[in-house]
Each structure stands twice: as C-alpha cells, then as structure tokens.
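Preliminary data (for renewal application), adenosine-5'-triphosphate complex.
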Amino acid sequence: MAEDTINASPEQTPPNFIKLIIEEDLASGKNGSRVATRFPPEPNGYLHIGHAKSICLNFGLAATYRGTCNLRFDDTNPTKEEVEYVDSIQSDVRWLGFDWEDRLYYASDYFDRLYDFAVELIRRGKAYVCELSAEEIRRYRGTLTEPGTDSPYRDRPVAENLDLFTRMRAGEFEPGSHVLRAKIDMRSGNLNMRDPVIYRIIKASHHRTGDRWCIYPMYDYTHCLSDSIEGITHSICTLEFEDHRPLYDWVLDSLPVPCHPQQIEFARLNLTYTVLSKRKLIQLVTSGAVKGWDDPRMPTISGLRRRGVPPVAIRNFCERIGLAKRDSTVDMALLEYAVRDELNREAPRVMAVLRPLRVVIDNYPQDQVEMLTGAYHPEDESLGTRDLPFSRVLYIEREDFMEEPPKKFFRLAPGREVRLRYAYYLTCVGVVKDETTGEVREVHCTYDPETRGGWSKDGRKVKGTLHWVSAAQALKSEVRLYDRLFTVENPAMEREGKTFLDHLNPDSLEVLTDCRVEPSLAQAAPESRYQFERLGYFCVDARDSIPGKPVFNRTVTLRDSWAKIARRR
Ligand code: ATP
Ligand code: MG
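Predicted structure:
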C-alpha cells in the first residue's frame, strides 16, 4: 500500500486558488469548518487523464483538509449510460489510489427527492410545464445579442402545472411534447437563465431505476441539488460551467435545501497529441482506430494503466501541472517526464533483445552455462539481484552490430571489443551472411575470460556496453511498441475539413513477435513494470500474457525522441 498512500498536508503541497478559498472558509468557520467534495462522473464512457486531474483535486483536497470526498455517478441520462462504465470508473478511481469509503452515491438515488423539489418549485410559482417543441424552445430562447421571448405556457396556473407534471410522470405524454422549465428570466444576459428545461420525458430503462421513471431531471438541476443533499461544501467543476453557476445558485436559493455549496471552477486539462473528450474517445473505439477503451494508446486511465503508467506518476503529473483559471494545453512530454521519473525510481532493470542477432562465442566451452549476477536497480539495493545465464550462443540487438560502422559507432563491429553487461568483454572475429540476401545471420566472437563481471584488470577501455540474453535460456516474447496516437499537437482542431481521425499516427503501434527476454521474466506478474536496459520502460500486458509467456507493452522510451523531431520541423 505504501506506494499508493495519499497523505498530504497543506504545507506539503503548493497552494492554489481553491486551497486559498477553502482555508479562508475554514478560518471563518463557514460550513461548520468542514470540507466535503465529490467527484461526479457521468457513466457514459471511461475516465481519461483529464478526469484524473479532477479526481486528484477533489480527493486530494479532502485528504489535505481531513474532509471527505464522495464518488457520485451523475446518471440522469438513461440512453447513454451503461453499467460497464460504472464499474470501470470505480476501478479506475481506486487504482489511482483514492477511496470513497462508504460514500458511493448515484444521482438516480435522489430521483424521488428531485421530483418532490420540482413539485415544490411549481408550488412556489418558479417552474412551469411547457409544450413548445425543442425547436421552438430554441427559437424562443433568443441569442447572445437578442433577448428571448416568453413561452405562451409560462403563466399557467400552479394547479394546472401540478396536474400536467403529475401526468408527465405517469407516462401520459410522448417524449418532446412536454417539458418542465424553471421560470427565471427570458431576457437574462445569461442564456442558461432563460427558463432552462429541468425535466424531460425519456421512455428508456435506467441502469438502476429500471422503468420506474419516464421523466428525467437535467444536469444543471440535478447537480446542485445532489451536492446539497450530500452536504458538499465546495463543488469543484471545470470552466465551462462558470456560466451555469447563476443557475446552480438560483435552484438552491429557490428551494428549502439542506445547504448551499459553493461552485468553484478550474481550467480543464488539455494535452498535446491526444483528445480528451468522451465523445471523441468513443469514436476512436467504435471506428476501430484503437482496440478498445483500454488500448495502451488511449489517454484513458485504463489505457494508461495497461500501458504501464504507475498511478503515482499520474498523481505527480496532476500535482505538477497545478491549477489555473484559464484554459491551456499541457505538453504530453510533461506526462512522459512524470512517467519516466517514477519508473526510473521504481522499475527493476532487466535485459531483453527486441530484434535478435545471434552471437556465437567461438572460445566459450560448448555445453557450459554459467550464472552471472545482475542488480535489479543501480540505486536501490533493496530490489536485490537476479541470475543471468551465460553461454556460448547469445542474442544481441541487431542494431548493436554493424559490419562497416561509421566513426562514432561504439558498439560491435569486426575487430571491435565491447562489454556485455554484467558479463565479459567480447571481440568480433567474423560474420556469417545469408548467401542470397547478404544479411548478417550470425556474428562470431571471442570472449576474454579474465573480464568476468564486465571489467578488466589491465584497465583497458571499451566504449560500448551491450545488453544480451543467452539463446538457450531466453524466453521468446511478444513486445508491443506504442507511440503517440496522433501526429499533430492538437488533433481536435478542425482544419481543412479534416477531423481528428485524419491525424492518427500510422506508427502508433509496432508489434514485435520474435523478441527474447531474460528468463527471470517468465513469472513476471501482470502489470509489473520493468526497464529493459537501453530500450525503455515496459510492462507485462494484463490481458494477453499467460503464465510463463508474458507479453510486454512499451510504456515510454528512455529519452524523449519527440523533442528532437519537434525541433527538426
Ligand atoms: P468529457 O468532456 O470528456 O466528455 P465530461 O466533463 O462530460 O467529460 P464528466 O463525467 O461529466 O465528463 O466529468 C466528471 C468530472 O470530471 C467533472 O467534474 C468534469 O468537470 C471533470 N473533467 C472532465 N474532463 C476534464 C478535464 N479534461 N480536465 C479536468 N477535469 C475534467
Ligand atoms: Mg459532463
């Protein structure tokens, strides 16, 4: 659990504008000096890294100020919501390291109370049943520059509204024929205040309430009341809801509610080289551009998890990017930095050869296998060591050998000596080539038995150190090299009739099926993360690995190769 414990005191984490508001409220005794937040996803898709920002913020504030954070599903639209999403969201929040304890709520749990509140609004003359069509409602609403027009149904008597609303609930009317609207101000400068619809008829089964309801409350009406019912003190949401705040407050001021939470907006997370909108992510899944919500190229929490991103890296990333009141875009390189930073700390080092080239050591005894020792981590001895079998036939990386090397190539070449990591010095004495293609099939070498462990008493220098595996003992493995899903920084920006789907990176996945990994990895647990020396960070795919036969996903390369590409452009 150590890795996933979130403990933060106000002093440990940098201040941000929301903390300042909370600290003022605590100091003045507002809300009984309580802090209660919530994370309110709509179960209509999988969570993405943008949601992680909101999760870290809401649960983080609760942890910092010894408050509580609820998980609440905003499940008011039965046509788009699914149990699969409800389950994945819970699993993702938990995996990120947060705990809602016994505070798991659903807006649908409040349908009865929300209905009663609506009746109360009607009684107070603050809501009416409207029979304009959706199109007419839009037209009557006016525009940013023109005021709206009152609906002809606006001044219905309370009794008639009560009767119609009861009949809406009883299923007497068709969808779209009647809606319940808040009676606010058709001339308001804020379009959200021009008599917004608060209930509509939808004849669809709900994942929790089944067919009990055929009218469903709208988001703006539901959200503030749910917050109030749960005793939320600070209702934190993204900037696009700033213009909805007057409505949030109007509903709460118009009803006898338990408390009036304060809505506070912050800038949502945008990331380069990806899209963060459930609508677009659904399109990636349904169009087959990726292999599902948890495809390791997806910016979803489940995709990042499968890719090998540690939860603590996501939390650190969210902490580092901070909180702003204005929208901006964060460079994907920053997320990758947080991932490398954490993996560098935690990941055991192992050896794997992605594109194998056979090496025969002519002067090594035919059937001998000796065990060498390699440390799992250069800085963390507690990770221990593992045995590395060494024998006459090895594999090295194909690109670590060149027959006619350029000047600065410090790896293996005819006549050159290199070091094999944890093993011996090795000198190339010959090559075997395919007669027809000319391709190098095998490299012949000699080793210096005096250099066991990878160093020589005479102090002679070798410039290159190569990773390797012993051919007979290595495990044949599939390795998937993932790269960014899009080739442009802002794929969501529409340009020249192109959509984000036109900017997919054709090289976002390369599957290598003939890789060899060191035998210690045979029993590697699903989701365990490693550094393949000199190659990058990899994790054991949780879906496709079977015991004794791990499949690896590349999480991230050791260095940022995109920075170079970006500079060249
Ligand atoms: P999307 O735009 O991806 O469809 P959403 O806002 O519709 O997301 P919700 O399920 O309503 O998704 O979001 C739950 C919470 O997560 C909300 O409080 C929302 O403000 C927050 N959230 C969603 N996207 C982001 C983001 N990119 N950055 C920060 N917070 C986000
Ligand atoms: Mg939403």
